[in-house]
Amino acid sequence: MRTLVLLNLLPLSFAAVAADSLSVAQQLNQAGASHLAYARVVRDQPEKPEVAGWYDWESLRLTLLSDTHRPAEIIARAKHYPKNAPLEFQQKSLGHAAWAHLETQQGVAARALLGRLIWRFELNPADHQWARRLVVRSYLIEHKADEAYRAMLRYQQDFQPLPKEVAAEFAQGLLREDRATEAMTWLAELDPTRPTTLALQMKVGLITPEAAIAQARAVLQKQPTAMAYAALIADGAEMLKDNRMQIGALEQLLGLPDAAELTEAQLWRAYLKEAQSLGNRAQLLQGDDASWLELALRAETSDMLGARSLFAYVAQHGASIGVRETALSRLYAALLTAQLEESAVRLFNAAPWGEQVSVALLQRLVARAADGLPASAARKLYFGAGRILELRQDTIGAADFYAQAVLQSDLRAPDLLATQALQQAVAMLERAGLKEDAQQFYRSVISQKDPVKKALPAKAGKKKR
C-alpha cells in the first residue's frame, strides 16, 4: 500500500515542478527575457497535449515564437495541433498562424486562417479589428491593390471613427503599390506630422520632392532608424531622377527593420543604372569583364558607392562564373566596409541578380572577400554570413560561420564582435539540438581568455638598522 501511495504522489510532484517552471517562464517573458523564457519552454514543456498544462505551455511558446520572430516554427507546429484543442487555444493559434503566414509572404494561406478566425469565433472588438487589418495586409503582400482598397473601405465603414494609425497604415500600403490616388481617400484622417502624410503630399504634388527630402533628412539626423523617412528620400530621389541619392537612401533603408520586400530589387536596379552610367563615361564595352572589374577596383579608393554599383553590374553580367563570384565577393566586402551589414544580409538573402546564394557559394564568396585581409577584418565577413544563414533558419550553417568569426578574434581579450559571435554560435548550436557541442565550444573559447591578474602585494621596505 505504501508503494502505491508513493506512485500516486509522483505525478503530482512532477506536475507541481512543471507548473512552477511555467510560472518562471512567464515571469521571464514579462521581464523581457524572451530567449531565456523560450529556452525554459523547450526544456520543460510536456511532450504530449494530453498532459495537464500542455496548452498553457504551448500558448506561451506561440507568444515567444512571435516575439522572437520565428514564423516558420509557428507554421510547422500549427499543423499538428489536435482538433479537439480548447476553443481559447484554437483562437490564439489561428491568429498566430495567420500572422506567421503573412510574415512568410503567404497571403492566401493567411486569409484562409483569418476567415476561420473571424467567422467561427466570437472575437472581442479589438481582436476583430486586428484580424480585419491582417486581411488588408494579406492583399497588399500579394500586390492586389484593388482588393486591398475595397477591404480598407469596408473596414472604414464597419469601424468608425477610423484611428489615425489605421488610416496611416492604409495610406502607406497603397503608396507602396503606387496608388497615391486611392491613398488620398485618407489624407484628411492622417496626422500632418507623420511621414506617410508627407510622402502622400509629395506623390500627389502638394509639396515638392526637394522640400519633402529636406524635412525627411532633418528627422533622420535625430532619428537615424526612422524607416519611413528613409523610404521617402528614396522615393523623392527617384522622382528627381537622382540615382546616386536613391542608392544611398535605399542602402540605408535596407538596413532598417521592416523595409519593404521590394527594396532589394529597387536597390539592384539603381546599382545597375549607376554602373552603366559610369561604364559609358569610361567608354567600356559590354563583355569586357576585366575592364569593368578594373574600374570597380579603382573606384574603391575614391567612389565607394560607384564601386558597389560596378561590382553589382559585373555580378549579374559577367561572362564566367569566376568573374561573377569575384564581383559578388567584392560587393559583399564593400557593403560591410561601408558599415552596411544588415543591408548586405538582406541583399544577399534576396539575391536580386537571379542566382540563389547556397551555403557552398556563400563560403566561396566569404573566402574570396577575406583573402589578403587581416583576421580582425575578415571576421566581420564571417559574422555577416552567419546572419544571412540565421535568417534562413539554417542554424548549423549559421553556427559554423559565427564560430569562424570567434576563432579569428583575439580570444585573450574578446571585443564586442567576438562576444556577439560567441553568443550567436552557442545559440545556433542549442537551437539545432546540439547542446553538448554548444557547451564544449563555449568552454573552449572561455578557457583562452587571459585570467584576471591579481595585484602583487607591495614589497615591504627594508628596516633600518
Tell me the major beta sheet. none
Could you say which overall geometry the principal axes of the C-alpha atoms support?
globular
Order of helices and strands: HHHHHHHHHHHHHHHHHHHHHHHH
Summing up helix and strand content along with how strands pair, one would put the structural category as mainly alpha
User: How many distinct helices?
Assistant: 24
Beta content: under 5%
CATH architecture of the domain at 375-448: Alpha Horseshoe
Helix content range: over 70%
Number of DSSP strand runs: 0
The CA-CA distance between the termini, in Å, is 86 Å
Please state the oligomeric state of the protein chains shown: single chain
* Mean residue pLDDT: 88
Text of the CATH class of the domain at 375-448 = Mainly Alpha
Keywords, separated by commas or semicolons:
disordered C terminus, mainly alpha, disordered N terminus, Serine Threonine Protein Phosphatase 5, Tetratricopeptide repeat, 465 residues, single chain
3D structure, described in words:
The chain has 465 residues and is mostly helical. It has a domain at 375-448: Serine Threonine Protein Phosphatase 5, Tetratricopeptide repeat (Alpha Horseshoe), CATH 1.25.40. Helices cover 71% and strands 0% of the residues. The protein contains 24 helices and no strands. The model is unreliable at 1-16 and 460-465 (pLDDT under 50).
